[in-house]
What we know:
The protein is globular and about 65 Å long. It is of the alpha+beta class and 174 residues long. The longest helix is centred in the first third of the chain and has 17 residues, at 22-38. It has helices at 3-18, 22-38, 41-46, 53-63, 69-80, 87-102, 117-131, 162-173; strands spanning 104-111, 134-141, 149-153, 156-159. Strands 2-1-3-4 form a 4-stranded mixed β-sheet.
Amino acid sequence: MNEIASKYASALYELALENNQLDLYQEQCRFVLSSLEENEEFFDVLSSKFLSVKEIHEIIDKTFVGIEIDIISLLKIIVENHRVNILKDVLVSFNSMCNSYKGITEGILYSAFDLDKKTIADIENAIGKKENRKISLIFKIDPSLIGGVKVVINNHIYDGSVKNKLSEMKQSLS
């Protein structure tokens, strides 16, 4: 993780704790992150050389109506300092700090296809029981899995993918 991104994330984390709004800030940062990931072109707008900083600030205000002022201020500071390239890292790092504070272990859930929130929650609960701790999974689509799911938590991999099953069959036949 980028050290500068970590410093920005730490500053927001301290504000969230100070304001006793950790859950709200985390939820809103997740929303901002997912919005940015769904619209990659927005990064081009935030780092545009053709728009003034004031114009970009106005776009941020109009785009993220209802988001806490501290989060909006962070976005504006990142734009002013020409660090839009680390914005995702800042938001991911902030989320990790919040989860660590709450005693939640993070992992990544890979699937060949889109999964609904209930299915993801069921997988989090099942893995949480095996790991004997609360788990939060970030969902990513990986078409190379063919089917099934793969979960990566720290250095532990739970692989129930079709790709893995085929690989195991190939090894046993060799």
